[in-house]
Design brief:
Layout lengths: L12 H12 L3 E3 H14 L9 E3 L2 E3 L1 H12 L9 E3 L2 H7 L5 H9 L5 H11 L16 H5 L6 H9 L16 H9 L11
């Protein structure tokens, strides 16, 4: 007696789209690349977009996609890898063989765009999502055009450390309350410090 065929797991439509996109991209993609490609897919192809994105440390980021990633890893549909999104054989079976042309045509369109070029293209087309990015200045190319006047965090820190750019706070023991300073000035006496000799 044969056992009945295993039913594919129940998935949300957005999880099915995520797996279909990852499969169309070859089954494996780097974390940053996949997040940018998923963002572009949601902006261009999917209506309504299955994932909402916010400006974050590396540009557009979807917290829901990472929650779905954890769930899909628990169910064995994605491989548990730190730096990559990778679909498993179970994941391919879960989405089935129904050919959805949208993820495939999207994957063909962005076949050669990866790494800094992909990030720069995303920032150029959607500069709002780069406002909190720590890597906007690294990408070069389209990034400078998308974010004019953006100062890299390292340069900003260097500027803050220069003498005279920001006043250094006075030591705690040298601070006096404003009221006593005002009273001493009204009496014609210089403001005294709290430091005892």
């Amino acid at each position: 007696m044969t056992s009945p065929p295993e039913k594919p797991p129940l998935l949300f439509a957005r999880q099915r789209q995520l797996l279909a996109l990852l499969d169309a991209l070859g089954g494996r993609a780097g974390k940053l690349d996949f997040q940018k490609l998923l963002f572009l897919y949601c902006q261009e192809v999917a209506a309504p977009p299955p994932y909402e994105f916010v400006p974050y440390r590396y540009g557009a980021f979807s917290f829901t996609s990472y929650a779905d990633r954890r769930k899909l890893i628990e169910r064995g549909l994605l491989a548990d890898q730190d730096n990559h999104w990778q679909i498993t054989a179970s994941g391919r079976n879960a989405i089935g063989h129904a050919e959805d042309a949208a993820p495939r045509s999207f994957a063909r369109r962005y076949l050669a765009l990866r790494g800094d070029a992909l990030v720069a293209e995303t920032y150029r087309r959607f500069p709002y999502y780069a406002i909190h990015s720590e890597i906007a200045w690294v990408c070069g190319g389209g990034t400078k055009a998308a974010l004019p006047g953006r100062v890299p965090p390292s340069q900003l820190w260097e500027r803050r450390k220069r003498p005279g750019s920001l006043p250094a706070p006075r030591p705690r023991e040298r601070r006096t309350p404003w009221i006593s300073r005002i009273r001493r000035l009204e009496r014609g006496k210089p403001a005294a410090s709290r430091v005892s000799p």
